Give the backbone structure.
Amino acid sequence: MRGFGAFFTKELRETVHTWRIWVLPAFLLFSGLSSPVVTYLMPMMVDRLGGAGAGFTIQVADPTAIAAYVEYLGNLGELVMFALVIAYGGIVNSELRSGTAVLALSKPLSRGAFVIAKWLSQLLVIVCSAFVATGLCVALTAVLLGAGPATALVAATALWIVYAALLLSAMVLMSVIFSAPAAAAGAGIGVYAALAVLAQFKITSRGTPAGLMAAALALVNGEPSHWLLPLLTGLGLSAACLAAAVWWFSRREI
Amino acid sequence: MGAVAPLAIALLTMLVAVELGLVVYALVDLSRRPATAVAGGSRLLWLLLCVFVQMIGPILYLAVGRTRAAPHTSGLGAAGAHGRGDTPRNGRIALAAATLYGAGDAPEAGQGEAVELAAVRKVFAGTVALDGLSLSVPEGSVFGFLGPNGAGKTTTLRILAGLARPSAGTARVLGSDVSDGSAELRSLVGYLPDVPAFYKWMTGAEYLRFAGSLFSLSGPALQQRVHELLELSGLAGVDIRIGGYSRGMKQRLGVAQALVNAPRLLLLDEPTSALDPIGRRDILDMISALRGRTTVLFSTHILADVERVCDSVAIIDHGRVAALAGIDELRRRRGALHRLSVDVDDHEALARVLREAPWVRGVEPDESGGLLVSVDDLEAAQREIPAAVARLGLALRRLEGDELSLEDVFVSLITGADR
């Protein structure tokens, strides 16, 4: 892992200096702010819609803090994940395509350090942004809808972070395997879709990382949450993807 | 609910305003941008994405949909930086090079081989790039690496830099096999690719600090090294981001980053190709100043550069060494070569006879349908060629002398090696 510290520092600085800082944090903060507001205003909006002479009545449950949290987690599981896949399709191969990797890797920087520094720096961005967004969501929900199970939401966010880390690892692997960012993003969408399909079955939902979002929602809803196996398999699969990416990248010619 | 509704509505209004603002900004930017400056080349696709995929579409477009304008676009920053960065600085280069290697951590030139290639073969998807290349580069020498496009120069340097592996044969740098991929070995080597690419958001000084930190340099030693290299490359005082650099400035920065570790072996892939005459002279002065302090192996098309700074030169063609010569031998060949253009009614017959003559170095078809004859005795050629034409009973349509360019000499050397 020679050169890790220097390259990790470069990655963090690059995140701040380029577009990367804006994409995922923007989506996360948008979700954190919009979910309580939309949940709060939904009955009013539906009421206005229903009063417009459409000839039918729509009944919506009273907004609650839990509903806002569920809306927030839904956004994290779909909107933010989609953005993650698109944004990180070029996390490794963009440096190969632009040629910047050549200069870095001709120096005593190990291939493993190159890959892991990229993964870790972006995971750091995701973790920080997720907890800030969750904090905003909790605070705004408390103002609009009263206090909710904030601890459960924080725990659910932690489960989502494992899910995001898994998808980030998968994107690192795809970005090492495929030369084109679009191809890597396409493969990443395939991984995301596969996880979504697996989440529909009870056995795979409880025994694989596909069940992480369901476990997170159960925590917020106060229901029994089968989070342990999805958490462990998620961490394991994430590590496996990362190890495969390092192995593949180490054998690759630059 | 009624008490906080205004706040909620205000927040929602703000979010909608942000979203609409993003959409409008993205659409305005898209409308002003040529299709060539849009990722994927399709403005319609981005238009649909921005309009119909709320929030995500505009953000994605603004984040990844916009590509850089054409590189030749002139800008005030780039023009100003070019002016400052390309200022000639004749007298300071040798001093800066001496300072770089005089700090105590510079390697001493030894008597061994800095580079040893033995029957190196490299195949890319069925295409043979190197075909049993063998050569040695003495430590402390300045070694020129000549060859036409596709001859295998860049592949060789990439192998030596540890970025590619030979398909067969062995490549050793400073006594170690490069196939091991050792970071220790890479810490002794400096490498400049043919088209160096940098992080555009960094300044030159920041990039050199980053490069130095990869060699575990830090603190005042790193600062001092960065200062020396900025002086050496003529980029001191240039504080714009690399994205605004001219190609020549990038080339200078490329040379500087290759020297950040005061390497024992400096690999330069066509270091003067993007430079104006002053920049080219500076680079050659720098390479000259490094003679005896480190080993320099550089590839080029420009024979004049080789003549000016090299001790030895290898010419490769089709992945093999076509000629290996000291620079004095190269000069002798250049001084001795002349070329004649001959047109007769049977080229094959004349070419067969001329190839047997001792003063002929090469015979090849020329662009006008005649023969180009390279000779090292002009008077003998002017006397013997008409005589040979007469003996063969051919009609002599044209016989004229032609000035040899440096490129002609290079081609002639390869042709001579093939004969």
Q: What stands out?
A: Residues 69-88, 103-107 of chain B have pLDDT under 50 and may be disordered. The CA atoms of residues 113 and 138 of chain B lie 4 Å apart.
